[in-house]
Give the backbone structure.
Amino acid sequence: MLAVGVSAAALTAFAGPAWSQTAGSNVIEELVVTAQKKEEALQDVPIAVSAFDQNALEKSKIDGGPNLVLAVPNVNFSKGNFTGYNFQIRGIGSKLVAGSGDAGTGIHLNNAPLIANNLFETEFYDVERVEVLRGPQGTLYGRNATGGVVNLITAKPTDVFEGNVRGEYGNYNSIKVRGMINIPLGDMFAARLAGNYLKRDGFGENLVTGNDADDRDLYGVRASLSFKPSDRFRAWGVWDHFEEDDNRSRIGKQYCTKDVGPASVGGLGFSAVPVIAQIQRGLFSQGCSPTSLYSANALGTVNSQATLGGLFGALGGFQTGDAYAGKIQTPNIRDIESTFDPIYKSKTDIYQFNAQFDVADNLTLNWLTSYTFYKLYTRQDYNRYTPSVPFNTTPNPVNAFAAVPGFASIYAGLFPGGVIRDPQNGPFNRFTTSDISSAYTENWSHEVRLQSDFDGPFNFNVGVFMLRYQATGDYYVMFNTGTGFYQLNNLLTTGNANCVGAAPCVSIDPNVDPNRSGHNYYDSYGPYDLTSYAAFGEFYWQMTDTFKWTLGLRYTVDKKDVENHGVVLGTPGVGIGGPAPGQPANLKAKFKEPTGRFGFDWKPDLDFTNDTLVYAFYSRGYKGGGLNPPFSPGIGTVPQSPTFEPEFINAYEIGTKNTLLDGTMQLNLTGFYYDYKGYQVSKIINRTSINENIDARNMGLELESIWQPIDGLRLNVALGYLDTKIKNATSIDTFNRTQGNPLLTLIKSGSASNCVVSTAHAAQALAISSGLVPGIAANPFNLLGVCTPTTAAGFGTNILGTGALAAGTNVFGGLLSEGVPVDLSGNDLPNAPKWTISLGAQYTWTFGEWDATLRGDYYRQTKTFARIYNSDADRIKGWDNVNLTLTVENRDLGVEVGGFIKNATNEKAITDFYLTDDSSGLFRNVFYTEPRTYGVSVTKRW
């Protein structure tokens, strides 16, 4: 469905029409683009834009979205945790988690915006060209274009019969087939049908089931019809379908350096009773320690005692200690150890129609409408490794039900052999957790534009735009210790362990695929409705033959509406939850903002170039704010705003595009400076995404060049330099709440989140839980009250001068805090490498009627940080990639044979990670580049 690819500097020679043929066969051919929604030669467009065609994508093996970083300067790409991705341009992307959040880079198909899309899943096929516009495009492209725009232009029907088919076979038993056929249908109509199919084995193995992990089975098909009844009217329609059903891994390896908990607290040891001491120590663990991704123990396992599931395991007596004690993951980053094979299903249908009517000789009216239906269902093991310690066949004597008469018999009857019968996870005698990420979305858009092409100095491009986007779906986390705990509770309160109904029953959903009826699992559910409309225009004044002014203005209104459903995990009742007391049934936000650009482009006549374009622009970008998801009950932390604010960018850019050496070289340079307001970034607290706004500034340089010094030889380079700095801002790092201060100690809350208290107060609470205070019996679960403020006394107090500000006072009389704020000033923005380097070279030999082309591409990006804190735990090493291709072609026969190697050095590069919340144990889901692949292909063209 969607495709993007390598830089124009490297690839313009593959596209026609010819720039010139008189100076020699090594003259670089011209590429026509529509970056300003009108056809222009790439070198005449006063925007930093990279563009390329299908042939270029194949020559450099740019097969899909994850490969985009390999050739466009200052671009970064990585998958995300919830089946999404972050396409980042010049440090601008999307690092927030919110159903009502927007992307920082606009993804467009034939100039129509797509909010939900398959950019990282699909293969590229039958494209006319792809344009990657860098920098805010707030006038013609509008919302969600603060970073830039990726615009795929599909190949449209022509009046010539033609077709092609391509087959490819590679390692991992990879089979790819793609093709197209174009059929003229009389004088007015033409049809085009294209398709793509991919099936391969997995890159790794599921060590539990023995099956492949992360395989592919997907296809795409596109049908287009063009209609041209007269010279003044032309139209086309497109249907684009994508479907996938396989075992794709939504995330990569899970990284964790196990935190076993402290040996003592403030010099005070844990209880002398081992079963009590074990629970106590677990409540002082955060699950995973904040160590480097590259440390020796990074592929350890989470301390389950520090998770919500582990807490239920202790409360119900199911688990004694850490379920993963002594467990180390396999070092093969492609392998998983999952109770079941991942499930990945995705389906998208896009319908588009475009009509153009020349209302006058120099005036064109354009209408573009687009409808998208997107469906996604993914399910996988939450931790991706199995426990080393099974459940207890008889309950741990220290549990929440110990006072119930005959509890051991009740436990044995309900959980024979320690097996919990969880409808969602199945019957297991070990800790089992899984999650589901699903989505169902519809996207309508309309754009009407009136565009002039007058002979005089003044021209314009004006229009109106409307978009409606509706989305629903769920993110479930299902854990059998929670189900078992509620089954026990239900049996004691209602007599039916698996009841479904009103309070006091905590409903147990009986379905394998949850349907929102149960309260035995976590479900984040909040249908989202977006309505956006805008009026826009660009106005052009050709002041002289070589100098043009441009003024662009756009006014956008975004209305966002989210159904307000609270999280109902563990609450009595059945079905989805309503809003919290005092909150409306629907959360609403409205944003109204102007954007635009102003600047000039100039074509001076210079002695040392054939053509030169110099341009300078100021532009303003905007990305809408949104609504934070609802909190889990009993959060016990400082309340957060229900909304987060928009992003704004004031961008200043100057650039030049040059054609030199009689058309055999192109050299393009760009410099930019961004004043970045309200950067949106998320952190997960107690199973809820909290989105913050901070300010930053970005600046950088870009160079793109291609040189064809002799016939057959082509050299290209694309360099990006990026310097990002966060301005004055602070934030609490949930991965390191104490910042290593020995005066503070971290402890679990009753909802399995974390807080910090003074070490002296932590020792006092430990003493109480150990029964060392007269009149209070030993109970390790008393520690769960430490993080809950019972009064506001002391609110805002700087605890012992550590910087940790108190949220209030707990039941033990101590101050508690979220943690120590970290000064972010001067830190890099996440996923913003200082340097990106792309180098390419190819040479074509001619042997009679056959041409052989050997091409090599090298890419490097320097280190980045995955989060705004820039700690050692956030550091991602720089990485390299080498692609090699060899093609042998006979144009007269329409035959091409090729071979390729992608990631020739088999680089195992981390592209990003996602840090989970306190209640999951703060493990990191890590995303990788693909391993080395190689294969051969055969193409036949007619």
The first strand starts at residue 32 and ends at 33. Residues 384 and 768 are 37 Å apart (CA to CA). Confidence is low (pLDDT under 50) at residues 1-24, 632-638.
